[in-house]
Amino acid sequence: xxxxxxxVRDMVNQYKKTSKNTEYCVRVTANDGQFGEDALKQFQxxxxxxxxxxxxxxxxSTGVDARNVRNIVLMRPVNQIIEFKQIAGRGTRxxxxxxxxxxxxxxxxxxxxxxxxxxxxxxxxVPPEICSMCNQSPCICEKPEPIPCPVCGLLSCICIxxxxxxxxxxxxxxxxxxxxxxxxxxxxxxxxxxxxxxxxEEFLNNLFGEIxxxxxxxxxxxxxxxxxxxxxxLLEKLGAAGYGSxxxxxxxxxxxxxxxxxxxxxxxxxxxxxxxxxxxxxVAAAEAAIFTLMNDKQKEFIAFVLSKYIETGEGELDQNxxxxxxxxxxxxxxxxxxxxxxxxxxxxxxFIEFQEHLYKPA
Length: 362
Known about the structure:
The chain is about 40% helix and about 10% strand. With about 350 residues, it is mostly helical. The protein has 3 domains: about 1-120, P-loop containing nucleotide triphosphate hydrolases (Rossmann fold), CATH 3.40.50; about 185-270, no CATH class; about 280-360.
């Protein structure tokens, strides 16, 4: 079990995306001595975010008061109901802003320990109220006068009978003096390369400082983004700099551009005068140029690709998605190639070339 805890720790640290810190996940077992004890104390300190995940064999089953535990993962057999309840008890500690915890049970322990006499009858969950400022839950206001919303921190919640916008927008100033409009939210968390939590403003300034290493102008960004090969290279460079898919998705959220192409988001960070448009607006503006000189079958296929792009995002335009898109629209990839003329090279070129029109300036 102790060796398994080490293996899980190594896998979590290998595949984590939200932090670069090598102690994001640590093992705490009887074999880890003082290092394990120190890591556990750090984990129990709610002012610290590292370590974020602990793996163990049995050491954390009882007697550990970590009030902000939000997830418990069971990966070994639990043979006694007392032990099961003690493990679950690690998550029942109360903490500011914590309203539930989740147990991921890979060993079906809950089925063996269903006990109505112990647990009582199941209670139907009560849907939480929604904060009218940030459109998030829970809202715990019980008084008519304004008190801070536990989610957004603003002095106004659903208990006030006034129409409110879904969230408040604020402006942040970048180091070069430019201003970006973002959502006022404390829910989106960012981390620097050392695993330290940073604000949205710090995240944007760090990204803006990295941009000159990636592209020098809007025209260069557009040229790189218009081709799936160079776009993939740019995304890999962003990932290596600490801006992977999760960070970039969060960036879309804070500038209220979840339905926009990541190109428009990066362009907005580079030049705040250019507001992001939605993917649907981008397609509508480029359709006439895209479909010029295509035959009917090609138009039908590219229209299908664009519908997926609008629905899901720029990931649908990666070359690796071409076989999947062909198989999705036709019976199989081979059928798709046959329907579109039988020449895979020409189909690949069609897939690449239409994207140049998609990203041309309006």
